[in-house]
Structure formats: structure tokens, C-alpha cells
């Protein structure tokens, strides 16, 4: 764990405010379905980004909550805003991939930033920081971090822990020159590369995966960079009910079936070692009667918990700034449980509902 995930904990990114040499135009793309309320909040924040040339392109995907009217009013106030309206989705494609593809085709600029309607940028420098590796380092992909607002309750704590853990995984592997996923809440890539690769080819029938599967198929050690700076993250409001969260994670795990073999092996090795550690520890504690051995096993478990707590705290501080990561051993067991339950259901399910 320390060898792989410690890569992020001890990583030092140059986050100095050096002047940008290359200020290419940027298209911010949002696929939105029934997101009128969220767009009323998001668009004014995006319009205030500290960047010279950018557009905000909202793909209104078959909305019936007044999104069209809200966007019409917002376009009067914010000249950076453009919209594309979808009234029909072909039967052989999944809605979000279709919406994103239409938006990408009509985007004005080659540097694309993707986010969701319920995601808010942490600062006015979000676009500048997220796109810097693409504009200034010649990268194709820039992987960002999408956080969730802290609220009271167990579900919120679990969601935030799982979000941290997922980010630590994909950032660490990317830093080891083996990128395997990104998140659509905070992701940037080149438009021309997307078009040249026909990026969703072979993925149209899969409900999710417009973000992680695209990165998984096309990101490489040479064309991908990570952006680790609390000023470059987005914040979303997490699910309030476990059933909603369950369906969301099930959809994500279902997309995981289509990862490349190398990514499946990486995830599988950790998942199996995680299960093996706890299963072995519990079996030994329950069956060994010598108190010295029980004490030794307990010390090993606690040492792992301390190591994990230290690694997590340093990594999370890189992602979100000062945060307290508490109860890591408890949530580690919770993560183990729901990974195998939800993961197995998502991996084996043929269909998962979309909103």
C-alpha cells in the first residue's frame, strides 16, 4: 500500500503561479438532463473563471424541468454560454455519450474541460490550473479531482472516504506512469485527439464509462498528467440515501468490466490482498488460543491502520487541503464489504438505471 499509494502522499507538484506561456481557448462542456436549478448556480461561477478565452457549452439532453428556459435567460447575461438541445437519442447509443459527442463536435476550442451540472469549481483558477498540462506540457489528458461537500451523517462520511480512496488509486497509478481512469466531474483532454480516436467506439452500448473508460482506453504514461492542487478541484453534493449511492456505484463498477486487462489486474491485486489480510487476521484471531499470537496479530492490524491513516492524511491534504481523516480502519472494513457486494452486483448486472 505504501509503495503504490504513497506515491501521491509524497508527491510534490509545482503549483507556483508562474505566468502561462500558452493561453489556448478552452471549451467547458456540461451534459445536463433536468439540471435547471444546478445550472442557475453553476453558470455564473464558471463565467467568473480567471481565464481569457473560454466558452461554456451546455448540452441540454431531453430536459423537461425548464432547463431550456433557464439557459435562454442565462445566455442573455453570460456571452460565454452556448447551448445544444437534444430532443431525441438514437436507440443504439447511451444518452450521455451521445450528448457529449454532439457537444465535442461543435466545441469552439481544442482544449476541453468536462464537468457535471452539480459540480462547482473551488476557485476562479480552476480552468487555468486543470488545463495547464495540456496547454504547456503537450499532454492529451489532465486528470483532476472531484470532491464532495462535507455534511453530517454516516452516508456522507462513507462517500467521502470512498472518493478519497478512489482518487488516491487513480492518481497514484498515474504518477507511476500507469494511468487507468479519470472522473467526468473534473477532466480535461484534447478535442482533436477525441475525434481522431473515435473515442467512444466500442463503448456506445455501455451505460457509464464516458469518463473512466475513455481514459482507460487511451491514456498512456506519455500523454497523461495529474493536477493536484486544492484550487483545481470541484465540489459536488453527495447522495443523501444509500439506495441512490448504491445505484451510482453499481453503474461505476459495471463500467469496470470493460477496463483493459492491465487495469483489471491492478485493481484485482489490491482487492484480493485487502480481502486476504482481513480474512486471515480474523480467522487467526478466532482460532488461535495463545494470547501472545493474538497480541501479535492485533499489533499488525493496528500498525497497518496507522500506516493507512498516515498515508491517507498526507494524500487527502494534497487533494483538498487540511482535512481530518478519521476512523480509517472502520471505513477500510466498510469499503471491503461494499466493494465485494456492490462491485459483484455491478460487475455481473447487465443493466443499471440511469436518471
Fold topology:
Blueprint lengths: L1 H8 L16 E7 L3 H12 L6 E8 L5 H11 L3 E6 L8 H12 L4 E5 L3 E3 L4 H12 L3 E3 L2 E3 L5 H22 L11 E4 H7 L14 H7 L5 E3 L7 E3 L5 H15 L4 H27 L3 H30 L7 H21 L7
Parallel strand pairs: 1-2, 1-4, 2-3, 6-9, 7-10
Antiparallel strand pairs: 4-8, 5-10, 6-8
Task: Characterise the protein shown here.
The protein is built from 12 helices and 10 strands. By secondary structure, the chain is α/β, with parallel strands linked by helices. It folds into 2 domains: 240 residues, Spore Coat Polysaccharide Biosynthesis Protein SpsA, Chain A (Alpha-Beta Complex); 86 residues, no CATH class. Helix 2 links the parallel strand 1 and strand 2. The chain is globular and about 75 Å long.
Summary tags:
355 residues; alpha/beta; Spore Coat Polysaccharide Biosynthesis Protein SpsA, Chain A; 2 domains; seven-stranded mixed beta sheet; three-stranded mixed beta sheet; 10 strands; 52% helix; globular
CATH architecture of the largest domain: Alpha-Beta Complex
Principal-axes geometry comes out as globular
The value of Rg in angstroms is 21 Å
> How much strand content do the residues show?
5-15%
CATH topology of the largest domain: Spore Coat Polysaccharide Biosynthesis Protein SpsA, Chain A
| Domain tally | 2
Q: What is the makeup of the main sheet? A: 7 strands, mixed
Weakly predicted, low-confidence segments: none
Helix content: 40-55%
Number of helices: 12
Kindly report how far apart the N and C termini lie: 36 Å
Q: Number of DSSP strands?
A: 10
Coarse structural class: alpha/beta
Would you list the SSEs in sequence order as H and E?
Answer: HEHEHEHEEHEEHEHHEEHHHH
CATH superfamily descriptor of the largest domain: Spore Coat Polysaccharide Biosynthesis Protein SpsA, Chain A
Instruction: List the strand order in the largest sheet.
Output: 3-2-1-4-8-6-9
Overall average pLDDT: 88
Indicate the CATH class of the largest domain. Answer: Alpha Beta
Family: Belongs to the glycosyltransferase 2 family.
GO molecular function, one term: glycosyltransferase activity
Keywords: Glycosyltransferase, Membrane, Transferase, Transmembrane, Transmembrane helix
Pfam family, one: Glycos_transf_2
